[in-house]
Each structure stands twice: as structure tokens, then as C-alpha cells.
Design a protein that fits this description.
Blueprint lengths: L3 H12 L24 E6 L5 E5 L6 E5 L15 H9 L9 E3 L10 H10 L4 E5 H7 L13 E4 L8 E5 L2 E7 L15 E8 L5 E6 L14 H6 L2 E7 L8 H8 L2 E7 L7 H4 L12 E7 L1
Parallel strand pairs: 3-4, 4-5, 5-6, 10-11, 11-12
Antiparallel strand pairs: 1-2, 1-13, 2-3, 7-8, 8-9, 9-10, 10-13
Amino acid sequence: MKLASNASLAVIIFALGITGCSAPETRAPADAGTVSTAETGTVTSIRNAGAIAELGEGEDAIKVLFDPLYDNHFGSLAELDDVLIEKIVLGEAPYDEVSAVFVSHAHGDHFSARHLSRLLAAQPEVILVAPEPAIAAMRKVPEWQDGFADRVRAITLGNGEAAESLTIAGATVEAFRSPHSGWPERHKTVHNLTFRVSVSTASGGAQRVMHLGDADPGAEFFAPHRRFLESKRTGLALVPFWFFREEGKDALIGSVLNAESATGIHVPQKTPAWLGESDHSHFTTEGQRADVPTTR
């Protein structure tokens, strides 16, 4: 993580150039039984950085997964047990009727080449979007099938390059690369993607969620994407929990990311005391929910 003083200065400089963006709402995730209105999407936690996003209304509704399957918990993160893995792979509720799966990067706590290949085999309608290094790793496992190629979208971008856009099941999917946390001392070559997924609503707004993988919180890394980020207000940003420890965190989320609200992901099984004592929304167990407010 970058030093707070450097990140804070970058946040202030960046935030001064963006107007009309309020600080994010910080609230606990909704209970698992909460029913959302048509004008509010939902995000439900899986484990670690994994999440289900349900956006849109009626026939235009879409369900997507972020970083749902991974191989390594590194001794401190929540482990995926075999029962949960099979539910995700086979598309059993609540992991049913999924249109797309997004992978932020090919680290073992976000990605499983074998299980994602099994998912593609079991669910022939699912589209997978991932950085090219992740797709390359999948091509090497026995579970890979050449027929998957038509349903795989490989993203190859440099840090700071313009976002790539595509449409999946009526949803607008945009992805850009920014440095993994600890850059450049650590993970210098990791292809970490941020995804922004948007579904239009009947009222003329959009339910929009952003998943940042293991992004470094330095605002200078988001500066190349300033116009992209300020062009559309995001209802909910799923940010690595360490974003909440940054000095200037409200400006980082509300102005730099241009997000209405934020929920922390990638929280260790032993929640850091500072996070547990804060009022920042964050996921710690499977099934927690956060709303995705409609923005305009």
C-alpha cells in the first residue's frame, strides 16, 4: 500500500478537478434476506473478493459474478469449500442464470483456471471476461476445451490505457487496468482489471457496479481514467478494504472513482480491528448484501 501522505495529496489534486460528486454513503451491508426495489440492484458477497451482482429490471435483468472461484486462501482469507465450489461451477442457486463471469487478475486468491474451465463446460451460456494472462493459464489445464474460445473475452491493456468496452446480455461492460496494490515494489507485472458494469433502468438511470480487484489506492493511478470515471456515476464500488484506510478516502471513492457508495472486499477472516470498529460497509461472510442505487 502506498504511504498515506502521497495518496492523500494525489486524492486532493485529482478531486479538485471533479465537481458535483458527493462523498459516498458508508453503511453496513443489508441482511441476506433484504428484498430490493426495481430501482435498486444488489451485490451479494461470496467469499474473499467474490461477489454476485444482480442489476436491471424484468427481462432486462442480468446476474454476473466477480472473482467467484479461486484456489488459494494464503492462510488468512476465507477458503472455498467443495460444496460451494460445485454450486458455483454447476450454477445452482443463488449462482444460477449467470450471464457473465469477470476475473480481475490471475492471482490464486481471485482465480482458478481449473474450476473456471469446469464452469464454462457446465454452463454453456456464460461469457468469461478476464485479463489475457488468466486466459493463457486456463488454456494449459486439462479441463480447458477449444470450444470455450467463442465465449471468452481476453483483455490486454497497459496501465493507464483507455478502457475497453463490450456488451453482454444488454449490459455495458467496461474494463481498465490499474496497478495492483504495492506497485511498483510488488506485483509490477500483474494485469489487474477494474470492471464497471451498467444496466439501464426504465426511469432513464442506470444500476452500475464497479469491482476493483486488488487495485492500488493511489489516486494518481486513476488519473489517466479521469474522463472515463467522471462520465458515469457508479452506484456501488466494490473496493479492496484497504481503500478505507487511506487519508482522503471519501474523496478517493466519491470523487476520484465517482461512486455513490462503497463496500469493502478481500477482508481477511480475522477482520482488522480498525475496520471492524469503523462504519465502513464491508463483506466478511457469504450472503451479505449491499444495494446498488440507481444513478443518472
